[in-house]
Give the backbone structure.
Amino acid sequence: MNLKLLRWSLFLVLLLGVGSSFHIWNTALRPNSLAVDGRFVVDTNVPAEEVVRQLVEQGRLQNPESLLRYLSWRGWMREGSLRQGRYLIPDQLDNRTLARLLRSGSREAAMVRFMSVRRPENLAGVVAPQMALDSTDLMSALSDPLLAARHGVNTESLRTRFIPNTYQVWYDLDATDFVARMVNEWERWWTEERRNKAKKLNLTPTEVGILASIVKAETSKMDEAPTVAGLYVNRIRKGMRLQADPTLLYALADPSIRRVLNVHREIDSPYNTYKNSGLPPGPINYPEPAYLDAVLNAKKHDFIFMCAREDFSGYHAFAKTNREHERNARRYRRALDRQGVYR
């Protein structure tokens, strides 16, 4: 072989090698990511181009073109190639490592907290943003009779299985599995000791949850909650209607009402405890564990009536007789009149 031709051949091989190395570095091994506070979220079945666009928009990428080249080179541009997940992206990851991370579906735990929620739609609105959940999916699960039956309850009493607290769950947990997790937490909370306390009150755990929701709605004063619980236990034992104003407000779904009137007591609803005997079919909010314990440790007394105190302290005046209760009620009504509260 001609020496000159050999030299040119070696030069071309070297040049191709250098070019290939540069291509590999520029496409696969080039540092590209930028560290930004917080996790990066990839939703279900999002195209790779959209994921790259979001990375750029959040200031997490130096060179989007090189990442797109790498993803195209590996055949990872199709929808779903980059998997749903919540990712912590460190600084200066090369395209290869970054792409592998985004394909891992990295399952990360999330701390989900819900407190002081009233209705299922409120619960869904609070929980869903803390996870990769759509609030409508969670609402569908909460109202699914087949799912409720799977857990041995109906959709109304299913709500008693959601005990407000902070829970560590998988970020990508779906709605059905989230409901199952809450039911498991509920089962864990109901120890043998607590079940025995409920049995002594002649209440099921579900009924305790419903009654606890009424107690929660009646008083924000935890030192008074066992007394309120004892009053309702007394009414249940005597076969009296609960006549709980908060159940009317729940049925009316009008949070602006501050004064319950006779016309409100005429509403046709299973939650109207002025018309219907016993407990309503489900809870009227999601009571915290302290209220469940307040029912289980209901105070023993002879009170069967209660009325908010006229000093608007949040506490109640309790009574054993209707005559005594009417005196308390008149004082409270006069206080409302002085405040100009007529509805």
